[in-house]
Amino acid sequence: MSSNTASSSAGSGDSSAARKNSKRPKCIDYSSALLSLTLLDSKFTQQELPACKPILTPGWVISTFLIVSVIFIPLGVISLFASQDVVEIVDRYDNDCIPAPARTNKVAFIQGAAPKSCNRTLTVTKRMKQPIYVYYQLENFYQNHRRYVKSRSDSQLRSPKFENQISACKPEDDAGGKPIVPCGLIAWSLFNGTYTLSRNNTPLAVNKKGIAWKSDKEHKFGNKVFPKNFQKGNLTGGATLNPDIPLSEQEDLIVWMRTAALPTFRKLYGKIETDLENGDTIQVTLQNNYNTYSFSGNKKLVLSTTSWLGGKNDFLGIAYLTVGGICFFLALAFTIMYLVKPRRLGDPSYLSWNRNPGGGR
Amino acid sequence: MAGERRHKGMRLSKLYSFKCLKPFSKEDHSQIGSRGYSRVVFCNDPDNPEALQLNYRGNYVSTTKYTAANFIPKSLFEQFRRVANIYFLVVAFVSFSPLAPYTAPSVLAPLLFVIGATMVKEGVEDLRRRRQDIEANNRRVLVLSKNGEFSETKWKNLRVGDLVKVHKDEYFPADLLLLSSSYEDGVCYVETMNLDGETNLKLKHALEITSVEESSIKNFRGGVIKCEDPNEHLYSFVGTLHYQGQQYPLSPQQMLLRDSKLRNTDFIVGVVVFTGHDTKVMQNATDPPSKRSKIERKMDKIVYILFSILIVIAFTGSVFFGIITRRDVTDDGKKMRRWYLRPDRTTVFYEPRRAVLASFFHFLTALMLYGYLIPISLYVSIEVVKVLQSIFINQDQEMYHEETDRPARARTSNLNEELGQVDTILSDKTGTLTCNSMEFVKCSISGTAYGRGMTEVELALRKQKGMSMRPQDDEIKANPTKSVKGFNFWDERVVDGQWINQPNAELIQKFFRVLAICHTAIPDVDGESGEISYEAESPDEAAFVIASRELGFEFFARSQTHISLHEIDHVSGEKVDRVYELLHVLEFSSSRKRMSVIVRNPENRLLLLSKGADSVMFERLAKHGRQFERETKEHIKRYAEAGLRTLVIAYREVDEEEYRMWEEEFLNAKTLVTEDRDALIDAAADKIEKDLILLGSTAVEDKLQKGVPDCIEKLSQAGVKIWVLTGDKTETAINIGYACSLLREGMEKILITLDSPDIETLEKQGDKDAVAKSIKKQLREGMSQTAAAATTDDSANEKPEMFGLVIDGKSLTFALDKKLEKEFLELASRCGSVICCRSSPKQKALVTRLVKSGTGRTTLAIGDGANDVGMLQEADIGVGISGAEGMQAVMASDFAIAQFRFLERLLLVHGHWCYRRIAMMICYFFYKNLTFGFTLFWYEAYASFSGKPAYNDWYMSCYNVFFTSLPVIALGVFDQDVSARLCLKYPLLYQEGVQNILFSWERILGWMLNGIISSMIIFFLTINTIASQAFRKDGQVVDYSVLGVTMYSCVVWTVNCQMAISINYFTWIQHCFIWGSIGVWYLFLVIYGSLPPTFSTTAYQVFVETSAPSPICWLTLVLVTFSALLPYFTYRAFQIKFRPMYHDIIVEQRRTERFESGTRTASAVSGELPVQVEFTLHHLKANLSRRDSWN
Question: Per the record, which residues fall in region Disordered (chain A) (predicted)?
């Protein structure tokens, strides 16, 4: 643009010369503090930058819907297949593992001293390739409660130096004046159920190593921090910890302390590193120690393989199919509408739409 | 320069004899020494102990709002005057308590960021002002030092009483009293452009006693000035100079004000009277008026709605929380339900036994948690956006006026979007619609009309009557190409010296001699080219001198006693120099309405040359001078109809005897110092201005500004109503109305006037009620007229605005009365255009207020003069024309443009865009915050309403500031539905703003609903796809941090993509910002996640280690983003099909046009609209008229 050439004249030293300079808008010279736009050309200042935005012509609308459905439906199918590939055995045991006579007052039973051992038998209905993951699933357990989530001390977990940083941990902060390591409600309520698996009466090894996140083990839980005064308070919560093993090796704790987002959650218990064949029966001897009865939470044992997509959940596939289907339907509907009822003049129904020009976005 | 030399030695003061000798009102001067008039200045003696005691402020000037010391507290105070900021501050404080759902720094940081950004903006602005101050304070000036020599010093070191010397083209450093100048009579010329924008030169006089040589002025000591205290009145000054035992009254004539400039004078010497902030210009500096736009006011309401939503959902959560918490302990209080929370040993916030209290505290927590519904950055973003929008307005090349070198200026950025909603424009006429620069177009000499040119009014009238546009096309072509400013006269009988062949050549010669001699203009000869230009007091006068120059009577020199012309002798046809001895100038005044000069011509005959208004001139004609009276009157009438200003030209010969007697009397009157001196002078002048011989009349056109009719046409096509408020006569106003297509052919004129004889008699009797009744009757009649038209035409009428209302000033007085104003307004709102003639400045403001408050719609007032200031301040938007008539209007305005026609672009383009942008921006802001805020709420429901946010604290803090703000700002600054060209091509598009379609409640609530739906889709799809199963191949399950990151990513993607599909203008900037924001989120995640875990807590390595390698997270993201956009997209597709908005159709039209123009050979873009556009426009119009009928 020609205006750009009319830049400030040479003798801009004194004010009168500056006054004579053209005030023609050239480039933004005083807004440099806000945005340094000085280098941009006048297409910019005149707001005539080249712009491209498809408008919603029938063609665009229909093809957008079609493209989305064409992508989504296959994705849904793939996801569903992935989910179908996963073999999952879920066994709810919270009710069955309480002896029938004690079922009237489950809380009393779980808090009592009676043996909590319980045997379950699972049948493999489809071949499961290793690794097979063992989870426990709790329901109606609010690990995401604000009080619960906050009740931990990250610095204490990391380094023995910060042993005394327990202010967030109340009431499980100290026992008899000595700081509890690890402190707080989360650690205190550590899950204490155990599972022993055997297949056809031969013990099935459950590998409990490598179930925690690497970053947790290496950076969040110190290898020089040892449990101290744990579960020594006047009320015992969940599991106890071996005070001779550093926290970074206590993977059950690490898994537990990575709090779940939702009240229904699974936690990794271990891995079975052998294939299970179709028809295998698996005996589980479990210690039904954990009290979910007082808040009517369920407990489940889950054995599951994984696909590239993770565990078994058809929702993703179905959702993709649904959305893809809806888009396809919309594409169809719009095609029909454009064919049958093109926007034309004088259509009475159209008129009534237009009567009220307000609204809409 | 040689030019200046010539001035030397002449007593120019004589020319202005009336002005400089005007008696001073005794009243003012008697006040000196009393309260308000207590200033004492010791001239050239600032070190006088008495002077030191007075301790007047120095000349140091600071216009900054803040100082280094008070910047922080003061600007903080300014910030927290906003309610929203207070809310966030309170939240920030409370966040230090255990109530807070998140950590305190994460709340403080965005608040500090937002406040900091605003403070930085304030600081930068202030710094700029400071820099200007420093520049001004350090300018150099010559000041008389103790050793009696002038030496340089800085402005800021000047003291009251200093003697300063200012050279040509320098600014005055303070308010000075003029003592002497390079002219020996002590005059000087100043240009006051910085004060009032007037570019013409003003003459200032020193007192005779002080106007002495430079060498002797140095010894000017012992003078004491007693004068008024500092005040803001630019045009008044009261004071006396006590010098050598005498008192000399001082007037504004001796004052040289700071920031005005010395012109045409080599130097002046003055004494400093007011310094620094005491100067008139500083006293005058006021803040621009603060107005708020309608959208912002509505936005406040929306914020209240959001607050209510916030309270409702917080309350709901609290109720649930209370119930759940109570149940944590069994009724007997012995057993714990959720034992892992240790309800037996808990704090008050979770105490089951005091659940009500706990839920109350939870309510407070929730208020903070859902505080994200209230966009913290909205106010700041809007401010930033508006400032940037203003920059674009200022930068617009199309609104830059080359001739005056003035770009458009948005003086306030508050009202940008209001420009898009203007319903009524109230415009001044002179200087606004017209140029206020006069052109000599016609004249009538001895009963013959000369001048072939057509005025714009005539052209317009012809056009209206259906005649061909330019019947004299060929003649106009013959017009010499040389165009002279102020001269638009062409007649083959007169130009190029042809007049000497006319039968009445002698009279023509006399006529132009009068024009060339009878004036007060000063010639300015360009040394190189020899061209002459004139400095005249009024544009009319300049036009006359120029006209006579062009026709062979070139006025080239003026001395104290002589006026010299180059003339063409009508007998020989040769160019001769003639010198007229100037004896007296009888000045123009509004009461005299005429001006005369008495000269002695080279033939030694005494002549009185006179020009004046027809009303006063015809009665002064001699019996034998009325030869052409009838024709001339006829011509004058015709000229008036053509919208021209006329003056009658006459002369007489005075014989020596009579002159001598008169002169004695006149000089007597002049030297009188009594109160009635003026009257006596007038009477004396009267005595000689009689028995005149009529020569003819002149007609000068106050040209319509370029493009005014087109602009008005466009604006009325856009459905904007235009009212013209003018001081002109009814006829002139009507003609101008036609000329600028305000009144059109086929429009019915409703005239409301009190100019009928019977009403005049009524008025004389003082019967106000009867007059009011007559007005009422006229209003009623007008009303029934419009009503009748409405019924006959029904809704199918194509021209709903068939009426033009013309009302004169007197009637307006009655119409603005409380009793009648409603009827007046109703009638006026039924008319397309309204013209109020003869209206006073106050009436202008009253009319504006009536329209504003009566219709509740946005009004825009536009004007250029001081008389429009009231109107500009009263209207929702004031637009000042930065034209010739001074700066007062501009100073009072919100926007300043150089030409009326720029209004079209200002409204239809910038106004439309800004309205759109701000409306969209606010809607989108609420959308994005609701989307975000409601995901928090849904998550709450899954966390037993404990107040745990779904996301990491810092994600949330950065949401408004980093991940979503830039695209919104880009939207606010750059978005445009259609290009500027199309905005102008389809002015009806503007109605989107006037009817407030883009910011209607349906639309706002629609966006809010969209936000809530999006949040539901995001939340429920996310938690179901990545529920409890493993989310990776390695069997790991989702925890709190992964869910948070995934959901948050979905939100960021959704709101940014929503932006991408809802904006209309997609340039690289938008691409940059939208995709950049998403990029920034991931960048943030990586960087934040790599910080030590004590700081990053749940975000530690979450992206790199956990969620990025998980395909299900990405698949969820794609699914959720598309699903969340689907409702809007579908809605929009349906809307475009069934209920397209106006801009949609225009965009479509534009695309097909471009597409077709590729295939078609025809290059011209057809003005024809496709049927559906016509259809929609038709509806829009119908809607408009319907709306009008509701009023």
Answer: 1-21
